[in-house]
Amino acid sequence: MLCFLLRSAASSSKTKPWKTSVTAISSLNYSSKVPFKPDPKKPTSVITSSSAPSAADTLFDEQERMRRLAADEKDPSLDVGPNGRPLFTSATSLSQFTRRDTCSYFKLTNEALNAVLPEGLPTGMVKEFEDSKRTALLVRQSFLDLRDNFRRVVDPTIWSSTGVKVRKQVVLDGPVSCGKSIALAMLVQWAREEGWLVFYVPRGKEWTQGGFFYKHPLTGLWDTPVQAENVLKDFLKYNESFLKQLPCQILDPIPLGEGAGVGWLKDADSLAISEGTTLYELVKTGIEQTHAAVAVVVRLRKELSLVKDIPVLFAIDQYNNWFTFSEYEEPVTIRSCRPIHARELTLVNAFRPMKHDDMMVGAFSHSTAVGKLRKDLPDVPVDARITFPRYSLDEAETVSHYYLRQRLINREVFSEENWKKIYFLSNGNGTEMRGLLPFMR
Hints:
alpha/beta, five-stranded parallel β-sheet, two-stranded antiparallel ribbon, 13 strands, Small ribosomal subunit protein mS29, mitochondrion, transit peptide, structural constituent of ribosome, ribosomal protein
């Protein structure tokens, strides 16, 4: 049997079935014309690719579209939605929205958005503004439900006709591109317009990657002082006036850690907090002293839980990134490393839990490719997770008329049958609808 196998292997090796034969490129050319070989000494003419005119045409089309949109602004008769309804709501703030305003668009300005959301806008919102050439957002019933939930938390006397349970902690889940991040940003805008103190994190994934990190010998957690400094700077952008009026209620010393790239302090291991220190001074200390940045963020989380004069809301986007592994690794041997879970990071460990009495909302972002998480998340109430829907048929109809108004769709080919085809093809995915509607034929 062994001899038979050896003979078979030898015979098969002669045929060499897996060897790729080397064939000259010229032998595959059926043209009798000699292949052109450029001379490096002679200047060659620039060959214009087919994509160059296309790019120029695209730029011209965009400029022409902008010109026509500017002219359309003078014609209010174009602001018509489905069944002759107004395409834009007459409400001037998010707190004025009622059910009558659903399936209509709310006009915004860049100045107002940058003022109320200085931490940054969600990627989906920015893309929507860029493609539609207008800063306007769809008023959805799902957002009104979210807003009214927290409104009833602050004012329990507000009666709910639906009898929905009021939740202090909410996790926004749902399919990709269903508007979770935009709804969270709108909730933050509404809360700040109402005078709330909001701790808003538009990019939670940044807490789990980049910068300097080290394991604190006392806590056993991993400190990230660069991220801590950025968190404090973002928090100060909008809330500075609030923080100057709020005194520190915890006077325990702030433990110092290792600074970003500067090591440990030799003559001090803690920072004293004197009576009368405001939260603004506490935050400024964390920004100016890199050794105290991480501990100040942790202390700030505890201090905000003690604020009773004004409502406090924690709003975390990309919240699902805090339930998986970070991009940091701990060396185990010379040749191997252990991935560090997000819960092992000091900042995430302080802000991730939801089992408390504070108002908190976290939005999952499936565009970050974290993967599907289990339904019962650690440190999260069982009933906190709600599914955020994609566009309904009525919402998709309004969206289609809005993109028609913004000249993303050719009026000659626009019809109810065509936009419904795209709606069902995309399954109500807002990003896919916006990408497919211009190809309506």
